[in-house]
Amino acid sequence: MSMTGGVLTAASGWPGAARRTAFALSGSGDEPPVTVPRGPAREAARRELAKRMYHENDPSLLQRALNAFWEWLGRLLAKAASTTPGGSLGLLVVILCVIAVLAALWWRLGSPRRSPVSAAPLFDERPRTAAEHRSAAEAHAAQGHWSQAVQERMRAIVRALEERALLDVRPGRTADEAAAEAGRTLPGHADGLRTAARHFDDVTYGGRTADQQTYQRIAQLDSDLEGARPTLVAGAADTRRDRKIG
CA-to-CA distance for 86 and 83, rounded, in angstroms? Predict the structure, then answer.
């Protein structure tokens, strides 16, 4: 704004309301000129510019945050490219190598899982028969609850081995212990028992989710074990032979 002949004039760049205020304050030519100090004039212009009509096309808070992030990322990549041999191409090669290494580790080690602090007992409820555990497993499977179905089918396997006296009835036994003991009596199914016990631990303590294929493999193992004949280890065979001789 400027003073011409003692009369206040508004700059052409002022918003409409502020400009009209300034002209209204200037009065007519027959009246004494009215001057507005710099501070109030600046405040009037600030209030005018703060109106919503002037900010309808402004980016949203989220858009401003994204713009700031992409600008920061661009500066970071530009700085990294300037210090990497080969510039941008060299940086791209380094990034691709890192991604390839991470993918290889993920494929080799699998998804992270929580390791249980201590293995809990296989059976945590009242004693049930193998048939009851199988019925519970089938009920879970019918509803698509594969993790619970895997748990119940593994319990059915261990309970069936106890009912056939291939395992001693021992409260507090874990799935791994049951698989190891049964594997010595049924060596042809040792690998399957260890795998079933691992799946049981994964869904029970490791936080993983079982699928239909996993359940079907354990159910097939259960069926195979029903007709499996035990193999006596050398120590047990010698003990029985000694008893017969005595």
Answer: 9
